[in-house]
Amino acid sequence: MIYTPKEDSFLMEEQVKRFAKGKTVLDVGSGSGIQALAAKKSGAKSVIASDINPEVIKHLKGLGLNAVESDLFENIKGKFDLIIFNPPYLPEDEREDKESRLTTTGGKSGDEVLLKFLKEVKLHLTPGGFVMILLSSLTPRTRILKVLEKNMMKREIISFKKIFMETLEVWKIQE
pTM for this structure? Predict the structure, then answer.
């Protein structure tokens, strides 16, 4: 299943367009490719789109993107000026069908995938590089903020949008 862009994707896309020019960009969990395409169209120096799903990789290559099948950073080589991640960030909901959960659910609490990402991301950033992630107000923050503190990284909320029963936030994270 390829994630269809929704409010979260469009909110992140605005910031990618703002920050990607001249940067080496990695789009983790690329899905539809909306962020990687926005980076490319905005004049990024280079763009790599990655995803764990082979169906998504085929789709991304069909869009003319450099795509790598990878579980987070597993098959990623090199360092990047900008790493984008619109992770699955919702807590597990047994009522949601299994296939849909792969694109929306970040683990039992909702933060597990993002925690794993944040523990590894610093190894893939260039000096002065930064990360952009998207979170929901439904995503627990305590462990995320502890990982950032442990890795001596700061966060800044650069964009947000209130929708139905949650608030979406784009965070810029750097040393």
Answer: 0.91
Cα torsion at 10, 126, 53, 117 (round to 10°)? -90
Instruction: Give the range of the structural domain holding residue 161, as residue numbers without chain letter.
Output: 7-174
Domain assignment present for 2: no
Is 94 a member of any domain? yes
Query: pLDDT truncated to tens, each residue of the chain (175 aa)?
Result: 787 898 999 999 999 999 999 999 999 999 999 999 999 999 999 999 999 999 999 999 999 999 999 999 999 999 999 999 998 765 565 665 565 545 555 455 667 889 999 999 999 999 999 999 999 888 889 999 999 999 999 999 999 999 988 999 999 999 9
The one-letter amino acid code at 164 reads F
Domain membership flag for residue 1: no
Query: What is the domain-level CATH number for residue 123?
Result: 3.40.50.150
Q: What's the CA gap between 128 and 37, in Å, rounded? A: 23
